[in-house]
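[09:14] KT: can someone run the structure on this one? pasting the chain below
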Amino acid sequence: MATNTAPKIIDIRQDGGGLTPLVPQIREGLNAREGQEKKLPTLLLYSEGWLEAFEKITYLDEYYPTGQEIQVLEAYADRIADRIALESDSMLVELGSGYVQPPCRT
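[09:31] RB: done, structure tokens below
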């Protein structure tokens, strides 16, 4: 009898949380030397509102990667799952935009 176990989720984000680690990056980016481009960490863009806007963008016809990713998953989902199942220590890593849209369609 097969048992269903929950998948093991490994959170690969850096420890520390909060914005404190961003302060030095912000200072460095805004204090760029003459001739260098000023910049800010992209993490500052990842507010809840930005993630919602990005989710909407990813489903526009003009944003082709989402459609192509879905086509690949629909075409090869069984083969991908079979391949992962062959190895007891294998894992599937999804490094998407961070939005919580499940990568499957029913």
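[09:33] KT: thanks! The chain has a mean pLDDT of 75.
[09:34] RB: yep, looked fine to me
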